[in-house]
Write a structure and sequence with these properties.
mainly alpha; two-stranded antiparallel sheet; 2 strands; ubl conjugation; Polyadenylate-binding protein-interacting protein 2; PAM2_motif; cytoplasm
């Protein structure tokens, strides 16, 4: 009886088709896959350039995200301002010097007679020592 694995219908193995350690016998240079190392400095330069480009793009992306976040916060602040009655300087502060002068004139400064009355009615001791913070006084 014949062994089925040796059947004539199975393809025959030709020595040129045999691949050993990832290389066929036809390869002239068994180190072909390592030939990139011949130009290692150029490879490293290109790799560094790609890395720098990647980092630059990542930095730009981060800045864009930051700008978008700030814009969103600013928009939310404006919407909140519209919802509530807030102090808005352009609307609530006087616009002209005349208005500022009118507000300044409305301020009341006490006259000298009321100031003298305040001093006469005072309970403070005019002969008392001057207060200096951090210094303890002894009662002698």
């Amino acid at each position: 009886m014949k062994d089925p694995s040796r059947s004539s219908t199975s393809p025959s193995i030709i020595s040129e088709d045999v691949i050993i350690n990832g290389h066929s016998h036809e390869d002239d240079n068994p180190f072909a896959e390592y030939m990139w190392m011949e130009n290692e400095e150029e490879f490293n330069r290109q790799a560094n350039l790609l890395l720098k480009q990647f980092l630059f793009m990542a930095q730009i992306e981060e800045e864009l995200w930051e700008e978008e976040f700030i814009e969103r916060c600013f928009q939310e602040m404006l919407e909140e301002e519209e919802e509530h009655e807030w102090f808005i300087p352009a609307r609530d502060l006087p616009q002209t010097m005349d208005q500022i002068q009118d507000q300044f004139n409305d301020l009341v400064i006490s006259d000298s007679s009321s100031l003298e009355d305040l001093v006469v009615k005072s309970n403070l001791n005019p002969n008392a020592k001057e207060f200096v913070p951090g210094v303890k006084y002894l009662n002698i």
